[in-house]
Structures
1.
Amino acid sequence: MYFIKEEFSQTYEEKKSKFIAYLTPYSLFDSLMKRLREEHTKARHFVYAYRYLNEFEQIVENSSDDGEPKGTSGKPALNVLAGNELINSAVIIVRYFGGTKLGTGGLVRAYSDSVNLVINSAELLKYEKLQTAIIEVDYSTLSKVEYLINSLNIIVSNKEFTSKVKLHLQISDEQLSSLKTELPREVEIKL
């Protein structure tokens, strides 16, 4: 599975109709929709599709045709997201009508092609399930451990400073095994 960290957009044209596809992290979906409705006041349709992982690691997905004939826009866009194994991502396609009706098959193709176009221009990142780990280190070894954590691209979600420093990490299985081999012996990892 894959996800994106930032917004991407591409424009696709078919028989003078313009389809502007915006691919965004799911967490920014609502704010992007609001912004696009304000920016594109003359657009006819704001079709969307999204897929995200809920707290039980289940994929939740939804789509909307926003006034287009049923099943010709939102569902095809969702199918493209699913086909590319995208999660925690949303796509909004802003359509400006060009005066020529495309028919149901033409709409399915145009919406699918616009989503494929923006996905192909996006930087997709591989999704890895993260777990929480906690390590306690002495102040004297903190900088060495932080350097190691940064070099492994491990996320530090919290730091607690007491007699020692407690680091709360968001870590993948692969990062965990690398960290275990490279940490000083006196540092213990708690999962």
2.
Amino acid sequence: MSALPHCPTCSSEFTYDDGLQFVCPECGHEWSKEAADNSAEESESVRDANGNPLADGDSVTVIKDLKVKGSSLVVKVGTKVKSIRLVDGDHDIDCKIDGVGAMKLKSDFVKKA
């Protein structure tokens, strides 16, 4: 299987190496290999809304009211979430919130406690 990075614009997996840069055949986006190396290093660390690095087992505090999709519940500002787990994907935090249950959160809406 190919070890080439996915396209940063359209997330296509069909990128190819064109000498000094990578090219996406689906959207036509081109980016340098140095940019791909830098983005890989940045994506390895998940950061909260203030830029602090997060790790598995950390406690975080919600900084914005979050509506729970498919429910009438709301996670209020200031809710403390203990023992987070970092996962890959758009919602990069897996956790359990008292009164709500298991949830996935974006790191943009939390700060390290």
3.
Amino acid sequence: MQSHSIPPQLETYFERASVAIALAACGDDNPLLRVNAAFEELTGYTSADVVGRNCRMLQRDADNGEARERIHAFLASDTQDSVRTPIVNFHKDGHPFVNLLFMSKLRNQSGRCEFIFASQFDVSRSQPELLAAYDRELARTLLDLKPKLADTGIVIEGTLMTIANTASTVAQAKLRLAELDG
């Protein structure tokens, strides 16, 4: 695996972020380089469990065809800024949850993808108002991260799109979880 030096500003940001976030390398199967405490709390996996592995390990054997297609298209595209999709993941203890995954490419000044920034939120057991609060926190996270990365020459691409119908997203996630539990 190629060595990736994470800028100190980004390391500090990961230590302080309140939303679940992960950082992966671009290319070479996109291994995880860093996760924060909120990620560990959400998934039950420690940093030692996941660093060096592709985050698809969280999917286990779930049928995530549509989500996988969206993620693969994002990773393969030079023009797609970000992707946001619900995807079935599993806690370390084996319990499923529906993760509202947001991913964005962090590029250097020459335009080459250096890292993939990802945020996770469990929509399967949450209320619409919690999802709206998460959206606000993620938007604030991205706004806070941009100037911190500017000094390093790394740019976070895209802006966070607001979910058109949060109640529907939560209801759909609960239905999917009921199918998995049943």
4.
Amino acid sequence: MTDRPLTIAITGASSGIGLRAAERLAADGHRVHAICRDPDRGAAAVARISVAARHPARLVLADLADQKSVAAAADRLGDELDHLDVLVNNAAVFDQTIRRPRFTADGHELFWATNHLGPFRLTAALSRLLAAAPRPRVVTVASKGLVTMPRIRIRFDALDSADWYTPTRAYYHAKLAQVMMSHSLALRAAGRADVACVRVPSVRLDPGRVAAMPRLLRVLYAPKNRIAHPPERIAETYARVATRDSVWSDHADPGGDARAALRGVYLDENERPVDAPAFAYDEEARERLWAVSQGATGDPGWAW
């Protein structure tokens, strides 16, 4: 683990794992930029993060579902920083009360826009700041729930269609895309930036988030919430991955099959390399997803 203070940006830092990871990283002496959607919750989070921080945390406002907001946040970081050591793409929407699909001003389904297109656009926009760091790293987040869906695929012909929508389908569809983005970025930036995608297990929700649920959903979720991992536990994983000395390719076998060649990108909560869903190893599908994502986010430039 590095002893050098790192400059780290983390999305979704106003609650849950993101807040705890930001607290831990700031307490360890790193310079944390908390990227949050809501200004009031963001300000409260930054105040909390800064209590034990060696360097006061900075608030950056961004709604990942809004491409203009993402671009503005990246511009602000570009004005303030000469490099960025780590980007943690943590923010995601998984609101089970959204029973009908919602669409952004750009016409994208909300889960797809927030959980995939937003992180894709933000990573591209910050790639030059990352490339200016001595050992840049991009950390993205997927879900352990994908193990129950071994045949899940990207619905290229219906990415924003309402026909197949449920909040669960939309969430895991976008999370598969995040794994595939991580695989593609790891290969594109090989030797120049480290890439990790953390497979997050079920995590206990904050009390305020549970209280906001409809009564029936609270009752149904209560047993799961009791046995779920505390967010502090997974925040420790984030912090260790963000500051590790190793890189994903230390675990890979370039001469092996697709899984072996990418081993080390996808990690469980104990930072052990694990297999991703089969579709994430389909090179043609990954390239197609990259092209589709480029087009949907305004064809951003990349440092790698």
